[in-house]
Design brief:
The chain crosses the membrane at residues 12-37, 49-69, 76-96, 116-132. This protein is an alpha/beta fold. The chain has helices at residues 9-31, 33-39, 46-70, 77-100, 108-135, 148-151, 160-166, 180-198, 215-218, 234-238, 246-250, 252-264, 305-321; strands at residues 169-173, 202-207, 227-229, 281-286, 289-295. It has 13 helices and five strands.
Length: 322
């Protein structure tokens, strides 16, 4: 994939519009507080007018922040985050005040234009910024000529091609060590390992950890397998694996599977480590060729490794028999 250097143009125009709206609203609150409060059916006493003008000044300051953020939404995402938090808390505060009888229902119209209509675009900007941060500094901004298959080595100093030239290799690309599904995958591999190897296939684990940690695999009986540490996701990219989308990483089905695997499956719920947005995958690699691959549609997908190996090694075995 190509790393986007700049946020999409719509983010700039959206933040410019938000800044302009805040300036206009703030100016109206400062210079015409009585008219605004009257329209909202709020009693405009002396102290209320002064308080409303103060709110207008604060809203205007938010407008300046949005104009700054418009210059680079990804770089200035903290300003967008502060604004988003304010827009979430505003309606919540109104509901408490309305429930207590201190504000009329008509005051809720202000929440619609000041807060609610901005939730979705601000959330999209923040998601884009977070995803961008997981792309920079790794293989997704490196030249396409990068060749990690030849350069990266396993924990015992061998190259992927060296192993795959001997016999087919099941190359399992894992997610970060804190991922419930990563531990579930290690558990599944541990149970199916003997049959996979009996079918004539080796297993190579690829992970995003900066350093090899055999203890993470020892409980599953995988600590003696060759492992490749790929913290910048160079090999992931070369095999066509991408950074996950929101639904792939945090969709409802992913959450449901995570709870089932983490709590009921006994694999735990860990904290994000390394590049937690990297998607996993499984490939059968032999003599410089990818015989087949399984790319996860969701982080929670659970391939049956033994079936994958048997299905793809059968044609190879038949060809060798001839």
């Amino acid at each position: 994939m190509n790393l986007p250097d700049q946020p999409p143009p719509w983010m700039k125009y959206l933040l410019l519009a938000a800044g302009a709206y805040n300036f206009i609203w703030g100016a109206a609150a400062i210079f015409a507080p009585s008219a605004m409060l009257s329209w909202l059916q709020v009693d405009a006493t002396g102290s209320t007018l002064a308080f409303w003008q103060c709110i207008g000044m604060l809203v205007g300051v938010y407008g300046l922040a949005y104009l700054i953020a418009a210059t680079d939404a990804y770089r200035h995402w903290p300003l967008v985050l502060v604004g988003f938090i304010g827009k979430v808390l505003g309606p919540i505060g109104f509901l408490f005040a309305y429930g207590a009888g201190t504000l009329p229902l008509t005051f809720g119209w202000m929440n619609l234009t000041n807060d609610l209509i901005w939730w979705a675009p601000f959330a999209m900007i923040l998601w884009g910024a977070v995803r961008h941060q997981h792309l920079i500094g790794n293989a997704y901004e490196m030249p396409e000529a990068d060749d990690p298959i030849r350069e990266l080595r396993t924990n015992d100093g061998r190259r992927l091609d060296d192993l795959a030239n001997e016999h087919p290799q099941l190359v399992v690309f894992l997610r970060h060590a804190g991922c419930t599904f990563c531990r579930e995958a290690a558990h599944d591999l541990g149970k199916q390992r003997s049959e996979i190897e009996a079918a004539g296939c080796g297993i190579i684990l690829v992970h995003v950890g900066k350093e090899d940690d055999p203890e993470s695999f020892s409980k599953y009986g995988l600590d003696d397998l060759p492992r490749i540490s790929d913290p910048t996701c160079r090999l992931y990219r070369q095999f066509g694996l991408d950074i996950g989308t929101f639904s792939q990483l945090f969709g409802a089905r992913v959450w449901a599977r995570g709870i089932a695997a983490g709590i009921f499956g006994g694999h735990g719920l860990g904290l994000p480590r390394a590049n937690s947005f990297q998607m996993p995958g499984v490939y059968l690699y032999h003599c410089g060729q990818i015989l087949d691959g399984f790319q996860h549609e969701r982080a929670s997908d659970r391939p049956v490794y033994l079936d994958f190996v048997r299905r793809n090694l059968a044609p190879v075995d038949a060809a060798l028999a001839k």
